What does this fold into?
Amino acid sequence: MKARILVVEDNALVAFELCRALEAAGFEVAGPAPSVTQALTLIKERSCDAAVLDIHLRGETSEAVAHVLAALAIPFITMTGYARTQQPPIFEGVPHFTKPVPSSVIVAELRKKAPESGDH
It folds into this structure.
């Protein structure tokens, strides 16, 4: 069974490239969700095994999404253009990748978080 990865990213090009790389690596993708509201809807309707969160989303942060994922014990990583010191406390101790980051790095980290993915 493929692990389902939630992608929360408001940049359409970054989201497209990441989703394509995740699918090529054998993951099922939920999203991309460009907003907190859409991300929370996807979690409720489709669930996920892990998530990639861009922290800053057009005037809001994905902090609410991180709290829901943490409450559900769903692992997540961050991929953002902001320094760790600019991040809300919920993101402390979470794997953090500064954009731009190669998709292969994200795939490798997600394989650790959701190992039931198809390893191609």
User: Anything to note?
Assistant: The two ends are 13 Å apart (CA to CA). The chain has a mean pLDDT of 93. The longest helix spans residues 12-24. DSSP finds four helices and seven strands in the chain.
